[in-house]
Amino acid sequence: ALLRAANALLQQRRYHAALAVIKGFRNGAVYGAKIRAPHALVMTFLFKSGSLREKLKSIAQATYAHSRNLAYFVFTYKGLLAAQSRLQGKKIPFHSFLAACIGGWLVFGDNNPINSQIIMYLLSRILFGLSRLAVEKGYIPQPRQDPFPLLAALVWGTVLWLFEYHRGTLQPSLQASMTYLYEDSEVWHDLSDFLVYNKRTDSK
């Protein structure tokens, strides 16, 4: 009977906006955990030192922070979107922008490693999206050739220049990745740390 009542409630159109906010919170939490847990697992075991317990704690903390922030953001965004639509009687594009700006300020405004990674992830996709939109709207002409090879060259040229000469400007996890690839590959003592291990763990 309780299950039937709950299912009946979920079918009520008048509660749809409020229920969508709740489900958005749920989906934000689940998606955040799915995205962060594997990333934190790989990065922690590849680049962080410490005991197994410390590493597992770090993974759990990063996963929780990402999951919580995404859940809070979706909840805030969808709630503000529904409120604006209700107040004005209809949904307009500016509602989405304003709701997301407020949610971004409140939830992701703290400058920490998790939020920084999320913002950089979004920024790269925004730049791609705005470039495509500019072409679609006719603000810039359709390129005669695929510009991606030039973009790839500029991105890699810039990031390696920053790594070599202005390393502190790059995010710590990117610094760690590049150190592993471009600096650790310069050092070895014998076959063990040339092919098998990255660095020797003994005192030889």
TrEMBL record:
GO terms for cellular component: peroxisomal membrane. It comes from the Eukaryota. Pfam families: Tim17 (PF02466). This is PXMP4 protein. The lineage of its organism: Eukaryota, Metazoa, Chordata, Craniata, Vertebrata. The gene is Pxmp4.
